[in-house]
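Most newcomers find our protein records easier to grasp once they have seen one. A record pairs a protein's sequence with a compact description of its fold. An example says more than a description, so a record of this kind follows:
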Amino acid sequence: MPEHVWLLPLKDLDDDARAIKLGEIADFSVTEDQRRFVGEPLRMMLIGLEEESRHPIAIDANGAAVGVLTLQAGAATLAGWADDESVWLLRGFLIDRRQQGKGLGTLAAGAAVRAAAKLTAALGGEQTGVVLSVNEENPAGLAAYRKAGFKDRGRYLGGDAGAQRSMYRGF
């Protein structure tokens, strides 16, 4: 199991490096269950590149993209949080099916919180942590987030794919 992952903000990469990472992401293997929960990884990254509030990130291990995630400001109510501005929303978090079971999701979730803290400082924001929602029918996701220090904040019924757990981790 790798000891760490690198989070590569796609907006910070030059055009060539971004194209390489997007090509790796386009090659991800996604199960139908994953697609139901998070959608198509390449599409999510392309949308994130167009929206100012989203920060699309490639998760790298051993020199290659193994997953994706997006940190979004001003959207926390999408995960059942009381307001949009006090925390970052972690969305579209996916590990390539061929890379699952190696602890990468737990490592990346923890790294995402550290990245959000850095974004808060760099942008002069007032966010205090990260919130996400995970489908109740996704035991691997629930376990990975718990291992990464996220705390269950209760049931959320606003998701498109059924009942969710709203989870939070402060900086």
The mean pLDDT is 94. The longest strand covers residues 64-72. The two ends are 25 Å apart (CA to CA). The helical segments are 15-26, 32-38, 41-50, 104-123, 139-147.
